[in-house]
Structures are given as C-alpha cells and as structure tokens.
C-alpha cells in the first residue's frame, strides 16, 4: 500500500549581516555558555555553538546599529559589550563584522602585523571572560578585587601595565580576573593598574607563576 507523501517545502532567505565573535581565552570561534547578540529588539540567530550570529533581510534597517553582546544569566561567562556597526557593510561579498576586506590578505587574520583597522574590529569582536568563566586547568590567572574606602568598587578598569590587552571592568562585587595567554616561563612581577573617574589610579604588583592563580587587591 503506498504511503502518503508531503511535498517538500523550501524557504529562500537572504543574509543581511553576520556578527562573528571569538572567545578571548581559547582564541577560537567556539563560545561557552549561552550568548545573545541583538540590535534593539532584533535578535541574531546563532549558528550552532559558534560565535556566528546571523541577521536575515530585511530585519535590520540600514544605518548605524549598536549590537549588544551578552551572556545569559545562567552562564555569565563573558563581559557584555556594545559593538557599533553601520549596516550594510561596505562589501556585499562579506556582510560581516569583523570586516576581512580590511585585513592584509598576505597575513593570517590573527597576526600582530595585521592592519590597524582590522585589528580594532577583531578586538571588539573578541569576548573577554568574567570571573565566572570556566577556565581550563593550568590557566595562568590573576584574580582580585578593587576596593575604595573598604568597599568593593564597581565600574573600575583594571589592566596589566604596560600591556595592550583590553581593560577588565569590575562588577558590583569589585572583582576582576586577568587571563595571561602567554605567561612567562619563570616567576615574574606583573603590575596591575586600576582607574576610575575622579579617583587617583591604584596599582598592585604580583608575582605571576605559569599555570597558577595568584590574587591581588587594589585599593583606590
């Protein structure tokens, strides 16, 4: 007896824009936990568990957009960030951020010698870990807190100095974590600087040991 069949349906969609995020710890496009990317009320569609978030035409209105990237409350592994982008992208062949058409094609995309324009966009699209991030065993970390008047200071910026990595913004508990992707082979002193509007900068120096976590408190 023949079985009834249903004629297949197909839907044609057009990619309007893609946000391509990276994990700042693993330096890969695989993200941990649940992450959302939105522009106003428009929510991007994540491709599997990767950092690719797709927006289909005609969801986004042409013009300047502010894409909000944040982790969901049950997996708060990345610091929230806002990324300004003008849609559509300059090249219809690459409607994505970061814009690889700005990169030097003769160099790997992650090469330090890449163009300044591309590196700026790549840094914005690289998610920084929070203190709750599930760091792999053997990571080299500096964990600590920024204090003012004996109380935790939220909204302070903490950064290794000298250093080129983005600063960590402390939360309500004043805590921070600094991940060292290329730690020194021998114990080495590292200076952290914390800044906050209307307050003098605070510093702390700790000895970093590869594969271990050290703690620091910065008083401002």
TrEMBL record:
The lineage of its organism: Bacteria, Pseudomonadati, Acidobacteriota, Terriglobia, Terriglobales. It comes from Tunturiibacter psychrotolerans. This is Carboxypeptidase regulatory-like domain-containing protein. It comes from the Bacteria.
